[in-house]
Write a structure and sequence with these properties.
The chain is of the alpha/beta class. It contains 20 helices and 17 strands. A nine-stranded mixed sheet has the order 1-2-9-3-8-7-4-6-5, with helices on both faces. Bound molecules: adenosine-5'-triphosphate (ATP). The site of adenosine-5'-triphosphate (ATP) has 22 residues, from helix 8. Found in a mRNP complex, at least composed of TDRD1, TDRD6, TDRD7 and DDX4. Interacts with RANBP9. Interacts with RANBP10. Interacts with PIWIL2 and MAEL. Interacts with BMAL1 and CLOCK. Interacts with Tex19.1 and, probably, Tex19.2. Interacts with RBM46. This is RNA helicase. Pfam families: DEAD, Helicase_C.
Length: 723
């Protein structure tokens, strides 16, 4: 499967980590005297720290209940007649009345109800199915696919730009449409913002047959017809974008932000390790016995103290063990795998061999989104600074030849998105024989029905060492049970499971507020909140790419400097948007779930869920863009009782686990929408994967000498109950 090529028809189960409060005991661990031990990250006795919410400066926002807008969306129905822009037939959408501020949400004709997908990423890639009955959203996908390949007109901007067919279907923004439309599209900024004139530009679409637009330097059109889209590697249209090289000066390489006031409180988080023969945790970087260069780099990065996931994971990886590690967002998982891998490589004296036709990396790191893999690459480059180890990043939306040129200069650590990786392997540009380390960051995402097939493909390529002969490391903040079971296929049976805090739990450094806001009141509420926030950096999550464009444009019209990131933006635009947000030029970033996972952006003080995501895990990742590395942050979510009730139960669980206020109205909804345990409501509202799932099938655990719990987990492969 090619880059930007995706099996769009695959369903993703609605994964959930929730167990109702009244069922909690049934599933809870540790405290109830089960066989797993929980150990505080400091390896000292767990102290009763202040509750999560006490860590925060109180905001100007009243609690959810007080602010809760009980608008249930009863405002007048909007008309279907567009006021601007051209439209295709079918479920046309547009900025109905948008320019004169009559743009309304929730129209039954589809716009606001389009599938919520975004991707390469496309965490909702498969949600489209359950929600909309079968289409895959179009995506700027690392992996998009034949099922998205129609020539439906594509909305490519905020002001019209519609083609024929089903302009408002999940299909209408697919990669192919974008690619093949640039001949016809006209580049026309939808809105240039308000304040500085360049804050936000949404691409204007052009109403050609295929609709859509792709930037001049990004796509070359092949004029291919329906269902003929191929990735570049497969001979499809070329992507011309070459990302700018990262800065080379040491200051930039080691630039970092400060740990926050709650960094030391990480030590009080309970940690569970399960599996056999658990190596003792380390308490300090010195105990890791890294070489001097690595220690220097760690110091230059401003790391003086290990985070819990690092304390436990580093010795496990150093001991050569496979690992599944789950720790809260922003708690340093990247270094937890990078540092020990680098330590091994340096111990083994690995040197990148330049200009070899076939590069044979020792380590492959895969992550679901382009921006995230780029971030991981920058971390790898930072920690390998001044060594012979060379990291390379390759990802979709960039010129294929550029990826190859990066590779041939030598590659020990290959950071890649799955689609581009598979393409590069298919082109025999890298050999897999030397792979000793395979890391899946955001592993639950990488193994779900979205990316899972590609990862399976990866580990099935001829030449790649079997799981017995490589070290496989899975990291995420969420690990639903079903994914944990799947993961057994990728890991040695002796793998260890590290759980820092509650698996799938939200970061306690984020003050969470849930407001009841109907769809027709959301924009007004958003503006009110953003005006209160002022210039503090804020990520606003919406469910669809189209909505991201609209909301960003709307905010710009409201004179709030805003940019946006989603899967229909060109890669160059995505990187520009992220850059503008990072540097504060645009303090508001409207994003789809493409930005929900992993992104580590300094000073993001607020996350606003304009739309709640369809799964609770996604919620946890989204709000985790703030409150990182001991810093505090705030998350405000608009809960629409017309569409979000399925999230009430898991939200109550996540809020109470994180010691947040739970609005009474939310509890009421949660109670009234109670799902019988065991009834699999598309994976929602069912069992909360509170621990290593092997625990559900095993006998006793023992306490190891380090005070870390060590379970006598049966070999999952041999365990009949495993499946
Ligand atoms: N020991 C440490 N000391 C200081 N800063 C650290 C330490 N470990 C990590 N950091 C910093 O904390 C931030 C968050 O780390 P990272 O992005 O690895 O979190 P994460 O757990 O992978 O989050 P997510 O679940 O959102 O992907 C980064 O800026 C990183 O450089």
């Amino acid at each position: 499967m090619g880059d930007e090529d995706w099996e769009a028809e695959i369903l993703r189960p609605h994964v959930s980590s929730y167990v109702p409060a009244f069922e909690k005991d049934k599933y809870s661990s540790g405290a109830n005297g089960d066989t797993f031990n929980r150990t505080s990250a400091s390896l000292s006795e767990m102290k009763d720290g202040p509750s999560g919410r006490d860590h925060f400066m109180r905001s100007g926002f009243p609690s959810g209940r007080n602010l809760g807008n009980r608008d249930t969306g009863k405002s007048s129905k909007r008309e279907n007649t567009p006021t601007t822009g051209g439209f295709g037939r079918g479920k046309s959408f547009g900025n109905r009345g948008f320019l004169n501020n009559k743009f309304e949400e929730g129209d039954s004709s589809g716009f606001w109800k389009e599938s919520n997908n975004d991707c390469e990423d496309n965490p909702t890639r498969s949600r489209g199915f359950s929600k909309r009955g079968g289409y895959q959203d179009g995506n700027d996908s690392e992996a998009s696919g034949p099922f998205r390949r129609g020539g439906r007109g594509s909305f490519r901007g905020c002001r019209g730009g519609f083609g024929l067919g089903r302009p408002n279907s999940e299909y209408d923004q697919d990669e192919e449409t974008q690619r093949s439309s640039s001949l016809f599209g006209s580049r026309r900024p939808a809105v240039s913002t308000a304040d500085n004139g360049n804050t936000y530009q949404s691409r204007g679409g052009s109403g050609s047959g295929r609709g859509g637009y792709k930037g001049l330097n990004e796509e070359i059109v092949t004029g291919s017809g329906k269902n003929s889209w191929k990735s570049e590697a497969e001979g499809g249209p070329k992507v011309m974008y070459i990302p700018p090289p990262p800065p080379e000066d040491e200051d930039s390489i080691f630039a970092h932000y400060q740990t926050g006031i709650n960094f030391d409180k990480y030590d009080t988080i309970l940690v569970e390790v399960s599996g056999h023969d658990v190596p003792p945790a380390i308490l300090t970087f010195e105990e890791a016995n890294f070489c001097q260069t690595l220690n220097n780099n760690i110091a230059k990065a401003g790391y003086t103290k290990l985070t819990p996931v690092q304390k436990y994971s580093i010795p496990i990886v150093l001991a050569g063990r496979d690992l599944m590690a789950c720790a809260q967002t922003g708690s340093g998982k990247t270094a937890a795998f990078l540092l020990p891998i680098l330590a091994h490589m340096m111990r083994d004296g690995i040197t990148a061999s330049r200009f070899k036709e076939l590069q044979e990396p020792e380590c492959i790191i895969v992550a679901p989104t382009r921006e995230l893999i780029n971030q991981i690459y920058l971390e790898a480059r930072k920690f390998s600074f001044g060594t012979c180890v060379r990291a390379v990043v390759i990802y979709g939306g960039t010129q294929f030849g550029h990826s190859i040129r990066q590779l041939v200069q030598g590659c020990n650590i290959l950071c890649a998105t799955p689609g581009r990786l598979i393409d590069i392997i298919g082109k025999e540009k890298i050999g897999l024989k030397q792979v000793k380390y395979l890391v899946l960051d955001e592993a639950d995402r990488m193994l779900d029905m979205g990316f899972g097939p590609e990862i399976k493909k990866l580990i099935s390529f001829p030449g790649i060492p079997s799981k017995e002969h490589r070290q496989t490391l899975l990291f995420s903040a969420t690990f639903p049970e079903e994914i944990q079971r799947l993961a057994g296929e990728f890991l040695k049976s002796s793998y260890l499971f590290v759980a820092v805090g509650q698996v799938g739990g939200a970061c306690r450094d984020v003050q969470q507020t849930i407001l009841q806001v109907g769809q027709y009141s959301k924009r007004e509420k958003l503006v009110e909140i953003l005006r209160n926030i002022g210039d503090e950096r804020t990520m606003v999550f919406v469910e669809t790419k189209k909505k991201a464009d609209f909301i960003a444009t709307f905010l710009c019209q409201e004179k709030i400097s805003t940019t946006s990131i989603h899967g229909d933006r060109e890669q160059r635009e995505r990187e520009q948007a992220l850059g503008d947000f990072r540097c504060g030029k645009c303090p508001v970033l409207v994003a789809t779930s493409v930005a929900a996972r992993g992104l580590d952006i300094e000073n993001v003080q607020h996350v606003i869920n304009f739309d709640l995501p369809s799964t609770i895990d996604e919620y946890v990742h989204r709000i985790g863009r703030t409150g990182r590395c001991g810093n505090t942050g705030r998350a405000i979510s608009f809960f629409d009782t017309e569409s979000d009730n399925h999230l009430a139960q898991p939200l109550v669980k996540v809020l109470s686990d994180a010691q947040q206020d739970v609005p009474a109205w939310l509890e009421e909804i949660a109670f009234s929408t109670y799902v019988t345990p065991g009834f699999n409501n598309s994976g929602r509202g069912t069992v909360f994967a509170s621990v290593d799932t092997r625990k559900n099938y095993q006998g006793k655990n023992t306490l190891n000498t380090a005070g870390i719990s060590s379970s006598q987990a049966p070999d999952p492969v041999d365990d009949e109950s495993w499946d």
